Amino acid sequence: MNRDASSCRSIARLLGAHADGQLDAAKTLEVDDHLGKCEDCRERVALDRAIRGSVKKAVSTTTPDDVRARMLVAMAGERARESKQRAEAVATAAMAVAELRSGVEDGPAGRPVMLRHWRTMLPLSAAAAIAFAWGFAGKQPMAVGDTSARLGAGFSNDELVNQFVDVHRRPIRPETPDPKEVRAFEREVGVPVHVPQLEKNARFVGGRLLPVQGGERAAMLQYEVAQANGGVQRVSVFIYDPRRVHIRSADQLPPRAVGTAQVRVAQAHGYSLAVAQHGAVGYAVASDLEDSSAQYAVAADRE
User: Fold this and answer.
1) What percentage of the chain has pLDDT greater than the value 90?
2) For the chain, which residues make up each domain, given as ranges?
3) Residue pair 290/233 in contact by the 8 Å Cβ criterion
4) What letter would DSSP give residue 12?
5) Model pTM?
């Protein structure tokens, strides 16, 4: 009795592999010989085969037509909601740019200081457009009286900001110039990565993944913007997951309400920097300053 029970326990460990045909010839013969003698093990094998057959039938069963119809309706509704959200984002971005333009055009001596190329921007994200607006506007000079207030609003002690500014100042070669391949960065970054479409004088150079704090990744998008004087301004857009990647010093700056978004703007190491969050996506934008007179410029009208 004890010898038979021990034999059953030993064979029972091999029954699954036997059913899958994974045993070598010697073990297969041993199991077959035991099954010929042991009714309990034969019943166990029969039960296992019945369960496998039932699973196969369940997997091969097609979804009922009414369930498929409901799923298709739900998917169509979700696509419609996403389209509406994108349209609202573009409308918000347009309003934000209009607010910025109207604010800065009333600057000192009535001289317009908003960059002309902003009238041609067509962003995919309200937050991205606003961040671009702040970053580009950051190269414009402001009244001397605002300089003292500006000095205390820097990011220069933030490690992550220093990294962003450093790779903007000395750009790394992009991994790919293809926006479709850049969208695949989502798997590494953890949030959607879209390439904002800029028209006329803005050219998308390429994108790459950038290691950041805690072993996380951010996406870096590089642009070149042609200037009226024939020069080129560089703009770097960093996209990251704000739940895992934090720009801590941004909390020290008062948020600027632009449209429905809030943007925190400052200057670090002679570069204009804007930080914004749109839903679960974080953005940081670094842009060149045009000359030394603008190194303490605020990236928006202060009124």
Assistant:
1) 13
2) 2-60, 89-294
3) yes
4) H
5) 0.52
